[in-house]
Amino acid sequence: MTVSTVPANDRNHPSIAPDLSFASVFHADTVMVLGERETKLSVVAKLVQRLSNTGRLGVNQTNEIIHRITFRESLASTAFGRGLAFPHLRTPHVKNFIGSIAILPSGVPFDSNDGAETKLVFLTLSPYASREHHTQLLSRLVSLLSNKAAAVQLIKNENATAFHRTLCRFDAR
């Protein structure tokens, strides 16, 4: 863990930054390959449900999280273009940064600016009070996937285990 900025209310105790490594946020069992008949809504719902099924999100919060993410998507798409989307939410329902990933070999319309179908969806949930770290995590993901070679290597993986290994290998660089 790294030391972050010192809270204004207590200069004697620096806050500890959470582990924002991709391996910490995206566990291997939260990466999934989805089929051809998916929609933006079904992808979001399945990613949130996977977080619940793996015990990273409370069962009672699943529907609310799905609703809040799809509402946010209705205001502005989180599709980055080039086959990538990053639905995200800060919420009081999580204490740690968690995420799930959908690999969509056939692509799904996600309302991206370039009109390209989305092939990778990185859904992240962050503690509500962690705005700065939430932004850092999203920046790291966008930075990694802005690297065309890295994005191509990840997009070509149609196996969840191989994808997770590749993502973690990029994180170690």
UniProtKB/TrEMBL annotation:
<dbReference type="InterPro" id="IPR051541">
    <property type="entry name" value="PTS_SugarTrans_NitroReg"/>
</dbReference>
<protein>
    <submittedName>
        <fullName>PTS system fructose-specific EIIABC component</fullName>
    </submittedName>
</protein>
<dbReference type="InterPro" id="IPR002178">
    <property type="entry name" value="PTS_EIIA_type-2_dom"/>
</dbReference>
<feature type="domain" description="PTS EIIA type-2">
    <location>
        <begin position="24"/>
        <end position="170"/>
    </location>
</feature>
<dbReference type="InterPro" id="IPR016152">
    <property type="entry name" value="PTrfase/Anion_transptr"/>
</dbReference>
<dbReference type="Pfam" id="PF00359">
    <property type="entry name" value="PTS_EIIA_2"/>
</dbReference>
